[in-house]
Design a protein that fits this description.
single chain; 319 residues; alpha/beta; seven-stranded mixed sheet; 42% helix; globular; binds adenosine-5'-triphosphate; binds magnesium ion
Length: 319
């Protein structure tokens, strides 16, 4: 695959639809506007002004008002090879097809997402590593990859784990870095590494939602259980509004009873929803990264491409 990408200092941006210059609300106005919102009938909530919507989100967390706001979705599972990166790449492309503005953040030192999108992680001038060390603003490392923007990673990122361990507020570094750019997007997907280390904690702390890909095979629910425990800790210590959007069954083979059994087991044991539809196992999905694209363009009409498109619609409905 031809990896010729270079990082541009000033990334291309699509027009803003959110007035991010609205600025913080004076404290004394908050109670008054909150009252205004509460008094409105539910059906009129969608006609809130942007200022009111921003305020509502501040007050309520993301639960109800974020339709007009950004969903920051951490795609996490400490088990390796369950299609986290594939899901970030393909879902982002599917949402971009639907006209959404999407940013992908590669938070894995393996940098597979960066590589799949045509960038050589070793040739980058700057990456998320520099952002995590506080050397560069996140805005300055964003690169455009067709319709979707990307914050690339590099192997150096492994070093920032050690650096972060000694820092106060270490879990909040990514969230703070994202803050100035988040309103420019409808969706931000964070591709987490297969670990529950400090980088993944940064991803979960920065996120409004978590999506958990899992492979429908024996014992896969053990990893999901451990992740849910970590999410509980994150809610207690660093991000009380973090919501589990659901799990996604990947590399699914609907012909076997095992696949169906594991799907039911994961949702029953952990009381989480497995979002429809399961993503079928397909060689088309596995081939796509080698061509520097997702299955959506590699095999437009394949069952896996259609499944990821349906999943994107499902996520739109729930966010
Ligand atoms: N639906 C699918 N059908 C067939 N192969 C798939 C499918 N989804 C993903 N794969 C392949 O499975 C492998 C692992 O996928 P991926 O890299 O997305 O997993 P990951 O969870 O990000 O891995 P890691 O934990 O190492 O970051 C890749 O080779 C990918 O192409
Ligand atoms: Mg990955």
């Amino acid at each position: 695959m031809g990896v010729t990408g270079t990082v541009r200092g000033t990334p291309e941006r699509r027009p803003r639809t959110v007035n991010s210059d609205a600025g913080p609300f004076p404290r004394r106005d908050k109670a008054a506007i909150a009252l205004l919102i509460v008094r409105r009938k539910p059906l009129t909530l969608y006609s809130l002004t942007m200022d009111e919507t921003l305020l509502a989100r501040t007050i309520t967390g993301n639960a109800f008002y974020n339709r007009a706001m950004t969903s920051v979705i951490a795609v996490a599972n400490q088990k390796g090879g369950v299609a986290k990166t594939t899901t970030v790449h393909t879902l982002s492309a599917a949402l971009a097809e639907r006209g959404r503005r999407v940013l992908m953040v590669d938070l894995d030192p393996q940098a597979c997402l960066t590589y799949e999108n045509g960038f050589d992680p070793d040739a980058l001038e700057a990456s998320i590593h520099d952002v995590m060390l506080g050397r560069t603003k996140l805005d300055d490392v964003i690169v455009a990859t067709g319709d979707v923007d990307l914050v690339p990673s590099s192997i150096d990122l492994a070093g920032s784990e050690i650096h972060l361990l000694t820092k106060t507020g270490r879990e909040f570094v990514l969230g703070r870095a994202l803050k100035p750019v988040v309103d420019e997007y409808d969706y931000v997907f964070i591709d987490c590494a297969p670990s529950l280390g400090i980088l993944t904690l940064n991803g979960l702390t920065a996120a409004s939602d978590v999506l958990i890909p899992f492979q429908a095979e024996t014992l896969s629910h053990r990893a999901v259980g451990q992740l849910l425990e970590t999410i509980d800790d994150v809610r207690v210590y660093t991000n009380e509004n973090l919501r589990v959007l659901g799990a996604v069954a990947t590399m699914y083979d609907g012909r076997t009873n095992l696949g169906k059994h594991v799907l039911a087991e994961v949702s029953e044991v952990h009381d989480i929803e497995v979002l429809p539809p399961p993503i079928p196992r397909s060689v088309k999905v596995a081939e796509a990264p080698g061509r520097g694209r997702s299955v959506l363009t590699h095999a437009r009409r394949s069952k896996s491409a259609e499944a990821y498109r349906s999943l994107a619609e499902e996520i739109e409905r729930r966010t």
